[in-house]
Amino acid sequence: MMNGKEYKESLKKLKPIIYYDGEKIEDVVEHPMTKPHVNSAAMTYELAFDPLYENLMTATSHLTGKKVNRFTHIHQSKEDLVNKVKMMRMIAQKTGTCFQRCVGLDAIGATFITTYNMDKAKGTNYHQKFLKWLEYIQENDFMVAGAMTDVKGDRSLKPSKQADPDLFTHIVEKREDGIVIKGAKAHMTGMANSHEMLILPTTNLLPGDEDYAVACAIPIDAEGVFHVFGRQTNSDRRLHGDIDTGNAEYAIVGGETLTVLDNVFVPWDRVFMCGEVEFAQDYVTRFAAYHRQNYGGCKVGNADVLIGATSLIAKYNGTSKASHIKDKLIEMTHLAETMYACSLACSYEGVKMEAGSYYVNTLLANEVKLNCTRNMYEISRLAHEIAGGFIATLPHENDLKSEVTGPYIRKYFAGDAKYPTEDRIKIARLLENMSGGTALAESMHGAGSPQAMRIMIGRESNMEQKEKLAADLVNIDISKY
Ligand code: SF4
Ligand code: FE
What we know:
Butyryl-CoA Dehydrogenase, subunit A, domain 3; binds fe (iii) ion
């Protein structure tokens, strides 16, 4: 396993092409826009060496029997599923943001199951190829970006019916030695500071869409790949100062790229799906459920930080003893713990798959994420209400540092005289950045938009059984309908 420092050194050996603001990022570890995201991902490495968290952060590989970082592990029990959630809450408490490595973990978990199912039904040999690649990932402790979301073009049309065939990633050539793929993957969390990407389909596919049924692994610096790093709310503050960024060490939210795959060659031993349209839905469902499970871990860890920031602001403001403030903090805690409870529930209700791994309860995993799309907004709304309007009107950090205006800012932004004004400003900036803009949009759309969850909840709701429960009570035989 690598520690945080070794992870950063390993990134320096890669040569990905990444653009930001019209220029190339030469060194993701040091560039001001990517550095805090790298620091956050590095915590998934560093904490694996902390004896306090060893149980959460590491596991025993079922492939080699060796100790591996949990982010490369195939879940072997319900306890593994539960530990995943607990690990995520813990890391999110320490970083106050997204640590990005979970998407690859979930792509790995889904690929493990779907390649097994495909091989069983069709006599293909994807599973063994995938296991070989996974062992390579575990041995090197690489970070994998889960590359699912296509750019999708006209949302009402299937991939093969789009005006531009590249709006979903597809196979453009099959050769003796491998395939060539083209397209783009959007919102790629952690891509810029991963080692590899695991590509999988983004939607249910029908016959006619065979070229779009593709899963494969490629290095992030493979020939033909380039990335455009996204701009976040307030990210330019990183160029100015520490306080205004809110969380200078780890940034706010994931750090996403548009990743363009411009005729990328993939050798056959790295191809894990090639044309099996009938397995796309299974693949997407598994990945989505694994990823939706997480949000009662990482978002709750972030909410813990946000609730703490809100409680501190109330103290600085002199309002902490007011009963309605106390009640709102209780409400925030209640909303957060509800999400956590749901994540634990979908893990404890997990099942062993025929492939041998453990998989979460799909219905409950979708409930986790649907709750998150509401609860994080409500938690943030309450944080804003308690904090007050000054979080939106605070002057620049340089005005705080200025000899001319600094003394006045300290004087007039003071709250309860027990506390330094600068502490009030620091926490206000943290709260501002954690509760708005990119952070909230991520809670809404990360791991799938609300309608995607509702479709899954509809599918998994077992309405016939519920109708029968009602009918049985009043002696109606609905089987005759
Ligand atoms: Fe992991 Fe959460 Fe970030 Fe998704 S949003 S990659 S689950 S930390
Ligand atoms: Fe996410």
